[in-house]
């Protein structure tokens, strides 16, 4: 709870009471300071018109590059630390170099160039850039137009990928002038609040893949030490800044039911519906993406094997809530999906969103929760405080955190993450040919397993005669893991590992009902070290209750977003000649 | 319907009316002629005691070898035709060779040796054999004891695998004497009715893997010519002789519901419940077993890629029937399975049996049918006339044909096929180490696909520039096939095939609700022939809506029963130098 307390402290400091909307009562509009320089677009087209404008322009480009950054927060963060130092130096020179013969502009003049028609001007550290021609090749897609007519700084604060040397070099090519001194001063004084300044503190053991938004996994070596992953090291996958939610003001809205919009407080959610507890594993669609990167670069966070964790979750069953508020056959006859909206929002005010099939949401066997507890305590801020959806057996991305709204609908969520992101494609599909409409949104995940011990590149001692291999295995859709096969010779011969469903000292959990195996299994085996082997290629592959099996190799399942990486996991270790026997 | 008429004609000839039981009214006790020579065992222990006797003896052996023959009808039929000629000659010599100095026995004396305690004697073509020591090494397990004290002929008629030269050679080693002339004459006159003498006629296109019991698949080349497979070439997988059922006398018993046993006539089943139609693909667990045999010999029928077919099925929903007869929460609280018993029985009177999880049976989305029509007509005899279960998305073996009984139970079916047969194991598990209790009964099947065109070993013409590749794809559990990837270079590069859900000239079927995609998809693609390629290794792999993918290779999924063979399908064709361009 230490983290939560810290987080609530921060929330009090930054809490802004606004009488204008209920939303702003419970969620700090941490991005509202930017409204000023966005006014060009808001005034000219309004929210809806702006979206249409984007849709009409660059339609192919939108899909082609939408995966890199867009709202996904897909930050290629490796090497970032090294680059930062050099970047700071380059950045400081930007305003002073080659400026003597360039025109001076006022902020008012810059603001007029806020569209492809009028030209797209931006400022950065007091210099003015005309990036009209760059828009079409921006790796992050048309989101760049959000900054048109204003400062880049607030956006680069949100998407840290820009803090690299080569980005500044590209920018410098488009320089057309400098801001006059007064405009620059004014702009600097309005220096926006870092939307990530109020993030909760995190456990130092976490291996960070992206700081803003925060994405981190525990070290693989400790992942399988606990059957129930402690919340502090449970993998974190945020798409946007963590919203700071006041539990007293919190409301959960439900739309699409006969009686109109329902609005529930946290205490109503807790008191009105039975508390249901499940143990469920969540896994990011990008878990083990780093193995796909080794085949060929993909777009997305470079997750290792630990973007998966297991916890107990308690809350109201979504089914109970929907039935209580009027869900019945007449709704079921029309509706096909249940959409979720988070309280985490991007700079345009767009909330994180996702949906699941209606059947899954209302099925008695689906066990979908509106969870308010994780491992017996209030949800931590990083995991959706005060309420998140837990859709067991389904990809993490649909388990919407900081849940603000539920919509029963005949349509899937229109969100970027549902429509143009978490989907699987053929290895032959690239960003030029991809058609996101051609693939279904990822829901249930396929069979998965990985080796947590020993680690790649370590040694085993021949005199030990055996090598102990450990790991996890899990499958989506409630399909139980029924077997894990282990090889130490690269897949030529196989041994069956021992599975467990609890920590070593505890009684194993009773077997789940068929189709409701939501939790992973940990496994372990001692395998004889083959004579004369100098190196072991340790391999694991799991089988679920539908006898789905993992593919052998990564390349044939490679896909441009690097999702669904579930080939056999392989770890190479050396066999060292020990001295135990000679003693 | 031609086959059905023929079949009914046969049924009239052989129909025996017996007042002793309802079962015998509707099913001909075609094996009853053997009761005489089974009397030793029946008298001594009775049916239940006999089973216990078997269970107490050779417990390890039972499991170790149960897969070869037992009740599975797992006949290794290849090469059978060639062997038969030689076999007939050897067989004729058996009685006359080396008999001059051997004792002469009466049938009465032979009958006394009907157990391991008293010794196990059998007769074959007038010779007497003491096979007591052979029992422990009989590849078919303890079923051999059924013949103890009597003639082998009736059993060998049932399991045609014995009609091979080496079997007779083994038998000759155990010869101890000959029957006296009177006994032999008596035995010959009681020559049992071939239980397979009244089988329906079959389409000549079928490729037969076993004649008795009948198991056959259509040629792969014609399999994907029809989206709905014509019934006559729909793959046939019988475990026992086809029972001849009188539809007027037919009764379906239902046990395990509050009101006691329910007994339904065919007309009641048809009139009392709404007729529900689904299109569903059935697949044998052993489909593509021949590819596993190429890795290492397995036990079972040597199926090619066509032990899978697609049909429309009409009947009452099992859910409707169970609810009508009292299924409710109090039953659901205790029951976990729904068992099915066929009217097809082995020599001991044991019916074919299987079960499915209760949830599947009663779920609104499960679409489990008590089907009485296939492709718009009465079920053909080979497909379960008059009523079979269709459990869409689930392995063929649970789709019990000639359905006689349904039992709602807290236990799985105790049948051999549920407990000790259709299960998957690790490649490292052999018949010495297998523990059938350690693996779940196969229910939902994993993702599958195969190439029906071109055929292995054929040629494509380089001047055509493209090769047309066709096939099928399907997944269990109602998971829809969402993509099929094709490679012509052994898996290095991939192309996405076009899927279809109807015949070419018809409108495609509307997309199924999520989780209810019961039917296969046919696919087709024209792939450019790579320059300079002398040979193409064409590969297909499919992906389902849970993004399950097929494993790359066969060896790592090899298992001792050769089930669940769903690795990438590979076909090699030569590239010939055509002359079209030079003309």
From TrEMBL, chains A, B:
Taxonomy, superkingdom: Eukaryota
Gene3D superfamilies: 2.60.40.650, Cytochrome b5-like heme/steroid binding domain (3.10.120.10), Oxidoreductase, molybdopterin-binding domain (3.90.420.10)
InterPro entries on file: Cyt_B5-like_heme/steroid-bd (IPR001199), Cyt_B5-like_heme/steroid_sf (IPR036400), Cyt_B5_heme-BS (IPR018506), Ig_E-set (IPR014756), MoCF_OxRdtse_dimer (IPR005066), Mopterin_OxRdtase_euk (IPR008335), OxRdtase_Mopterin-bd_dom (IPR000572), OxRdtase_Mopterin-bd_sf (IPR036374)
Keyword Oxidoreductase: yes
Pathway noted in the entry: Sulfur metabolism; Energy metabolism; sulfur metabolism
Domain called Cytochrome b5 heme-binding: residue spans: 102-180
Protein name: Sulfite oxidase
Catalytic activity: sulfite + O2 + H2O = sulfate + H2O2
Cofactors (names): Mo-molybdopterin; heme b
């Amino acid at each position: 709870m230490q983290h939560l307390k810290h987080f609530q402290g921060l929330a009090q400091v930054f809490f802004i009471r606004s009488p204008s909307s209920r939303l702003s009562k419970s969620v700090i509009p941490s991005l509202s300071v930017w409204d000023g320089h966005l006014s060009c677009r808001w005034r000219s087209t309004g929210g809806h018109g702006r979206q249409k404008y984007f849709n009409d322009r660059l339609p192919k480009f939108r899909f082609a590059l939408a995966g890199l950054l867009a709202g996904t927060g897909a930050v290629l963060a490796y090497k970032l630390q090294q680059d930062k130092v050099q970047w700071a130096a380059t950045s400081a020179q930007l305003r002073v170099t080659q400026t003597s013969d360039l025109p001076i502009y006022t902020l008012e003049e810059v603001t007029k160039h806020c569209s492809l028609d009028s030209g797209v001007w931006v400022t950065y550290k007091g210099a003015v850039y005309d990036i009209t021609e760059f828009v079409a090749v921006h790796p992050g897609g048309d989101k760049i137009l959000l900054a048109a007519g204003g400062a880049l700084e607030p956006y680069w604060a949100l998407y840290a990928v820009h803090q690299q040397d080569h980005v500044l070099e590209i920018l410098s090519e488009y320089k057309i002038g400098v801001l006059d001194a007064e405009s620059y001063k004014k702009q600097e004084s309005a220096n926006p609040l870092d939307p990530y300044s109020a993030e909760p503190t995190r456990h130092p053991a976490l291996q960070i893949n992206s700081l803003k938004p925060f994405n981190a996994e525990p070290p693989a070596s400790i992942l399988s030490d606990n059957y129930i992953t402690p919340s502090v090291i449970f993998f974190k996958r945020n798409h946007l800044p963590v919203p700071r939610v006041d539990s007293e003001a919190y409301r959960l809205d439900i739309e699409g039911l006969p009686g109109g919009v329902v609005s529930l407080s946290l205490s109503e959610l807790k008191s009105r519906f039975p508390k249901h507890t499940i143990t469920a594993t969540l896994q990011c669609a990008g878990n083990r993406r780093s193995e796909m990167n080794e085949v060929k670069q993909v777009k997305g966070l470079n997750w290792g094997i630990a973007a998966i964790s297991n916890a107990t979750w308690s809350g109201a069953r979504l089914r109970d809530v929907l039935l209580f508020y009027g869900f019945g056959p007449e709704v079921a006859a029309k509706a096909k999906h249940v959409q979720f909206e988070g309280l985490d929002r991007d700079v345009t005010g767009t909330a994180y969103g996702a949906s699941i099939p209606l059947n899954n949401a209302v099925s008695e066997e689906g066990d979908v929760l509106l969870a308010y507890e994780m491992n017996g305590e209030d949800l931590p801020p990083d995991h959706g405080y005060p309420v998140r959806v837990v859709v067991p057996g389904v990809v993490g991305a649909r388990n919407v955190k900081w849940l603000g709204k539920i919509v029963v609908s005949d349509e899937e969520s229109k969100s970027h993450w549902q429509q143009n992101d978490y989907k699987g494609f053929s290895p032959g599909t690239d960003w030029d040919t991809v058609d996101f409409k051609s693939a279904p949104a990822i829901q249930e995940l396929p069979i998965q397993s990985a080796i947590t011990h020993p680690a790649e590149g370590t040694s085993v001692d021949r005199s030990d005669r055996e090598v102990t291999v450990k790991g996890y295995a899990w499958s989506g859709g409630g399909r139980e893991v029924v077997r894990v096969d282990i090889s130490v010779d690269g897949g030529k011969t196989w041994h069956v590992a021992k599975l467990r469903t609890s920590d070593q000292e505890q009684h194993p959990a009773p077997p789940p009902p068929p189709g409701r195996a939501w939790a992973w299994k940990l496994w372990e085996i001692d395998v004889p070290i083959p004579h004369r082997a100098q190196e072991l290629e340790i391999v694991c592959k799991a089988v679920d209750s539908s006898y789905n099996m993992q593919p052998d190799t990564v390349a044939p399942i490679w896909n441009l977003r690097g999702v669904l990486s579930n080939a056999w996991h392989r770890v190479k270790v050396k066999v060292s000649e020990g001295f135990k026997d000679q003693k």
